[in-house]
Amino acid sequence: MLLALASVQGKNPWTGASPSYWDYASIWDGTWYKIIAYWGYPGQLPLSTSGHVSQNAWAFLPGYPFLVRGVTEVTSVPWEYTSVAISFVFGLGATLVFYKLMRLTLPAGTTLFAVLLFCISPVSPLFQVAYAESMYTFLLMLGLYFVVTRRYVLLFPIILVMSLTRPSGLAFALFLAIHIAHRWWVRERDPFPTGQRVLAVAATVFSGVMGLAWSIIAWIGTGYFSAYTETELAWRASYIGYSHLVPFTSWIQGGNWWLGAPAGAVVVVLLVVAFALFMLTKGVRRISLDLRFWVIAYALYLLAVFFPQSSVFRLLMPLFPLLGVIALPKSRIYRVLVVLLFLAAQWGWLLLCWGVDGADWTPP
């Protein structure tokens, strides 16, 4: 699909017309990652003509670009090849860990179909482009696997690297807090030894600290207290103008921008209610309780800080445990239709978000 799209891609800010696969797979955020890998982060924040912080590299965390840079230095393989290869390898690792996660609560056949859906999901092209999602998803799945199997001591290096790959520390800390509260609540029938309590609480605190670490690093690097937050807000300024981050208001703002007020706000409320009802269904209860806790924690995190636009499809990727719910029906007709739907949605995502059409405002 990417090759087909590249063959008809016109000249754009990153490539000429009909670029090679490797060049085409390194556009959009891939260019930001390359800038970070070779030139680092700006010590002085760029400002717009209105005096506000404009888009810059501080919005992107260093884990993935620094790893790619390290591999290119060792192997002398150019960035375009190395970045895609590393994404592919992490995508493969994520697929294998996803199988192990699903297999903890689902039958083998259902698990394998869930794995298929993961591999062909609408945003699965991200596993073969120069984005940090593959690396982050692999680390997240490992972290979830260690929590479900209660190997808390292994969480610390995962949280450290994961939190410097994609913004995730606060969401994972919330997930761990819910996990700990539940384990404490059922401790009489499912013992929660002191050693595990200490490690789980320590991991939660560590994840919370790491969730704030990049903001502190950006502050130190620029001398500007809200450097990271203001940088992130610059991406939504083209929609709603410059504003401060007020938790749990971005979706209302986005809904009203897309659909008009008050219709947008009403739709957002209905989506939240529909999601809550969905999480109570029998199918969702078939997957691991801890994975449900993660889905809830991450959904709350997105609701608190994210402004809904075309990147929302990519940012829904961490809700991957819900693929286990979609995989439950065993009807062959159903499964074939779901596969066809996913492939069509994958093509639709590429056309909408990855393909560049003039002054494109639908980034992936």
Automatic annotation (TrEMBL):
It is found in: Endoplasmic reticulum membrane. The chain crosses the membrane at residues 81-99, 111-132, 138-162, 169-186, 198-221, 258-279, 291-307, 336-357. Pathway: Glycolipid biosynthesis; glycosylphosphatidylinositol-anchor biosynthesis. GO terms for cellular component: mannosyltransferase complex; membrane. GO terms for biological process: GPI anchor biosynthetic process. The keyword Glycosyltransferase applies. Keywords: Endoplasmic reticulum, Glycosyltransferase, GPI-anchor biosynthesis, Membrane, Transferase, Transmembrane, Transmembrane helix. It is a multi-pass membrane protein. Its main location: endoplasmic reticulum. InterPro entries: PIG-V/Gpi18 (IPR007315). It comes from the Bacteria. One of its GO terms (molecular function) is GPI mannosyltransferase activity. This is Glycosyltransferase RgtA/B/C/D-like domain-containing protein. It comes from Subtercola vilae.
